[in-house]
Amino acid sequence: MRRNETLFRVRYNETDQMSVAYHANYLVWFEMGRAELMREIGLPYIEFEKSGLMLPVLKVYCEYKHAAHYDDELYVITRLSNLQKVRLTFDYEIRREGKLLARGYTEHAFINQDGKPVALKKFSPFLWNRLCQTLDKQG
Asked: What angle do CA 16, 108, 116 make, to 5 degrees?
């Protein structure tokens, strides 16, 4: 299973008065990691949009272990963990110097421009096969 590690720093505007990163920013960091993983495998989101597909979030989960602080250098580690007919799931870890700060996942649907679910394998065998390769899964 392929993974991406994206390095970033906690910005001042992402923290509270105690210099602790606000909890909702972890979801933004998940999205940052997801976008980088997709770009790395040659499927930036723009490719889905050009195909008439969108990937809205259906579920999100985040478990917080330790706080991140202003100017911390963090990694978001992202993996495509599940691919199904009309949805996919990404797993995430946020780490500082190897220490796990948070972990979670997001689940997304494949939908067309009318908001209807799409079976990706039929709609775009190319996109389906590329995602299967990322999972080391047979199409």
From this structure: 130
